[in-house]
Predict the 3D structure of the following.
Amino acid sequence: QVRLVESGGGSVQAGGSLKLSCVASGDISSSCGMAWYRQDPGKERKQVSSISTTGTATYTDAVKGRFTISQDNPRRTIYLQMDSLKPEDTAVYSCASGVPELDRGVVYCEYIYYGQGTQVTVSS
């Protein structure tokens, strides 16, 4: 079992910045990576960014060039620097930890552990 705790959310005006942090504890030795997700009320949770244990990062198109994911200690601590925030970035942001899975000969990282989330509100 993996426990994830996020911090750093808050309220900012459009154009502002926030930095989210996430710390994982528990059985993290088999983790293949960590990620940030966000969810609007009544909508599906969507991945914003991910980072592998080797530091390879991915971003959804909506945040490319504005958000930066980083890690201090692979599998344990990640951050999400969010710049040039827009009202549409308003959501609950959660971090996640993944485990390797095999599907038709391809290994991928499946995110199965999630934190409680932290609210980010961007006003216009």
Observations:
- The first strand starts at residue 2 and ends at 7.
